[in-house]
């Protein structure tokens, strides 16, 4: 025990605190009696706070759990008003995601974020969106704001890759990341010392080697556009997350599909193929896809649709764009028979040019 506590007097009330005799106006004689024989003699001492008669519980004394239950019945505007009432209520709101989950911060568009930019009174929303911003540095305020984020969207922003990585390092709770239309002023890949273990959804238009290191547990990956140089990185990223990925949106090339065919743990249930219809047959011949795809979105002709019906045995939902409505109608019965051999429950077809075509089941 701390020697300084030997002379303290313990309160036997609910608080269980210890007090110096002088701070509670206790003379040394009484203190000595309580120290030496209080426990044996049955003497019990209560501090001034514990001696107060029982009465109605003051609002300030209600436990945080009760306040959270009350606040959950409020709308967003009321929660903001509650937050501005007192420091205690502000802390209760800020520290509980269930009270903040419906809020999203949308930063000013067409704005430069540099060392002079500092957003005041920033609400700790779990979702943030930056659009058409020039991001130079956010070091002054992002480290305190980023940890509360679960969703981050950058759309049309101008930023250097090292700056983006610095922002991501400060978002350990991120589960969803959207990087759309980004203009990278530098693509230097710096060494990183963090991983976003909670990130599940990634949508982007460019991929970098560093993504393989920092996104280890993706479930949803949307890569709608990429250069030929990025195909290798994209394949290695898929290789690294093949055991967790369940939904994949990509413009598959023949060479990508060849490499994907060797990824034995890749079993996505939802696949959105944005590539040429000529690669649909190749995709349907990948064994893992035959055993896993339940939801398929694709551009296909009748031959490809027959291949889908022949190979994707677990298919439940098919959304397709066809090149020719006439061809689709002429061979519809054959296509229908092939698709009926699957577990298909939903079919949506949009011909191009737009003509309504449907297969009735």
UniProtKB/TrEMBL annotation:
Q: Where are the transmembrane segments?
A: none
Show the PROSITE patterns listed in the entry. Answer: FBOX
Where does the F-box domain lie?
Answer: 56-102
Q: By its UniProt entry, which CDD domains does this protein fall under?
A: F-box_SF
Leader peptide range in chain numbering: none
The record's annotation in InterPro entries points to:
F-box-like_dom_sf (IPR036047), F-box_dom (IPR001810), LRR_dom_sf (IPR032675)
Q: What is this protein called?
A: F-box domain-containing protein
Q: Top-down, what is the taxonomic lineage of the species of origin?
A: Eukaryota, Metazoa, Ecdysozoa, Arthropoda, Hexapoda
């Amino acid at each position: 025990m701390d020697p300084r506590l030997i002379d303290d007097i313990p309160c036997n009330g609910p608080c269980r605190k210890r007090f110096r005799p002088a701070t509670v106006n206790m003379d040394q004689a009484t203190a000595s009696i309580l120290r030496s024989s209080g426990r044996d003699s049955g003497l019990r001492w209560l501090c001034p706070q514990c001696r107060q008669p029982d009465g109605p519980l003051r609002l300030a004394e209600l436990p945080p759990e009760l306040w959270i239950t009350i606040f959950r019945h409020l709308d967003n505007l009321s929660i903001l008003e509650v937050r501005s009432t007192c420091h205690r209520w502000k802390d209760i709101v800020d520290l509980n995601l269930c009270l903040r989950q419906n809020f999203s911060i949308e930063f000013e568009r067409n704005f430069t974020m540099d060392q002079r930019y500092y957003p005041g009174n920033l609400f700790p929303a779990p979702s943030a969106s930056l659009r058409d911003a020039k991001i130079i540095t956010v070091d002054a305020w992002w480290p305190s704001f980023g940890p509360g984020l679960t969703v981050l969207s950058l759309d049309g922003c101008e930023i250097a890759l090292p700056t983006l990585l610095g922002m991501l390092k400060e978002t350990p709770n991120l589960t969803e990341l959207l990087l759309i239309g980004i203009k990278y002023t530098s693509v230097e890949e710096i060494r990183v010392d963090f991983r976003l273990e909670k990130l599940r959804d990634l949508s982007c238009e460019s991929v970098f080697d560093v993504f393989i290191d920092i996104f280890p547990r993706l479930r949803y990956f949307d890569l709608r556009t990429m250069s030929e140089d990025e195909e290798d990185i994209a394949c290695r990223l898929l290789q690294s997350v093949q055991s967790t990925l369940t939904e994949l949106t990509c413009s598959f090339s023949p060479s990508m599909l060849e490499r994907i065919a060797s990824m034995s743990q890749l079993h996505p249930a939802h696949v959105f193929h944005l590539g040429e219809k000529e690669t649909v047959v190749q995709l349907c011949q990948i064994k893992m896809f035959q055993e896993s795809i339940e939801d398929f979105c694709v551009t296909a002709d009748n031959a490809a649709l027959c291949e889908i019906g022949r190979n994707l045995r677990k298919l439940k939902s098919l959304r397709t764009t066809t090149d020719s409505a006439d061809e689709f109608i002429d061979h519809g019965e054959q296509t229908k028979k092939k698709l009926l051999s699957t577990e298909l429950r939903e079919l949506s077809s949009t011909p191009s040019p737009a003509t309504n075509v449907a297969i009735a089941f």
